[in-house]
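Input structure tokens:
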């Protein structure tokens, strides 16, 4: 039977005594799934996983996404997106500076995914941590007036940084402006309630992020931005957070429905960080539920 160790007071556990490279029995898988729903971030140390095994573990949770940024998918493994600052023949081998603002993966799509699973292959000598925030806790921490006003509102989410005044474009990304201009055409903004119910924990979740939530639908622009500023102040201040320091071989999965995450940076080429990522999509019974 696996055991767990808390990673912080309000979010995250390490699951011990489990080898993800071999097929998991139902009882181990259920233990992992329940830990994910309850603790929102789960970590496993010293996992020696081939890309096939990483994908096989991910598929226990559901179908995997094939990321639209398809130039950085691992050769032969469309389910794996490479995150790295390494270069081959002078060109990036993966997404550089991925996720450097707080976000929930793919919230700019109609159906946000269940979770992402990262396998760390190389750590830089300094920096490279990943931050996580428990968005059920943030919902509970909202001042009453703000909790009441967001209940019935919808956030507008968009992948293109060009429409978001809260974010900056990394200078390390090649052709970033052209890329983000195309993204507006390919992926027009979508709406999500600011408050969802988690289908499995039944917790209310604040569903908004500085990276992808660019406004609030159907109210004046400045009013929407001011509500978002207030929400993001609560994010900045919450203690319901974890900063995860990676070691080679770590596998970390988060419940993308109930946490925001952020790559904390603090390293640069030629100090290399290399992580393989899969993202698991939601099914009919696991997607976030509307409250109103
Ligand atoms: O590299 C990281 O620390 C996180 C990157 C990220 O946002 C992601 O993989 O979804
Ligand atoms: Fe992300």
């Amino acid at each position: 039977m696996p055991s767990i160790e808390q990673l912080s007071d309000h979010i995250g556990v390490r699951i011990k005594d489990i080898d993800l490279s071999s097929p998991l029995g139902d009882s181990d898988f259920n233990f992992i799934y329940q830990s994910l729903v309850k603790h929102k971030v789960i970590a496993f140390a010293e996992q020696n996983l081939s890309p096939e095994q990483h994908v096989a573990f991910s598929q226990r949770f559901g179908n995997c996404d094939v990321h639209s940024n398809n130039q950085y998918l691992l050769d032969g493994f469309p389910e794996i997106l490479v995150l790295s600052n390494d270069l081959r023949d002078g060109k990036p081998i993966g997404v550089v500076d991925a996720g450097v603002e707080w976000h929930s993966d793919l919230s700019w799509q109609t159906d946000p995914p269940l979770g992402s699973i990262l396998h760390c292959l190389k750590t830089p000598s300094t920096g490279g941590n990943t931050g996580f925030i428990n968005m059920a806790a943030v919902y509970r921490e909202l001042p009453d007036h703000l909790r009441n006003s967001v209940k019935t509102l919808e956030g507008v989410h968009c992948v293109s940084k060009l429409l978001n005044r809260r974010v900056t474009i990394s200078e390390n990304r090649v052709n970033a402006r052209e890329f983000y201009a195309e993204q507006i055409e390919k992926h027009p903004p979508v709406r999500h309630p600011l408050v969802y119910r988690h289908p499995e924990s039944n917790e209310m979740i604040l569903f908004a992020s500085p990276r992808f939530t660019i406004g609030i639908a159907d109210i004046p622009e400045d009013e929407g931005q001011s509500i978002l500023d207030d929400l993001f102040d609560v994010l900045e201040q919450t203690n319901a957070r974890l900063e995860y320091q990676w070691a080679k071989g770590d596998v970390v999965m988060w419940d993308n429905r109930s946490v925001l995450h952020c790559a904390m940076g603090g390293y640069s080429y030629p100090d290399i960080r290399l992580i393989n990522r899969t993202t698991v999509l939601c099914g009919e019974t696991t997607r976030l539920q509307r409250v109103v």
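Residues 83, 98-99, 105, 116, 118, 130, 261, 263, 275, 277 surround 2-oxoglutaric acid (ligand 1) (CB under 6 Å). The longest helix spans residues 221-237.
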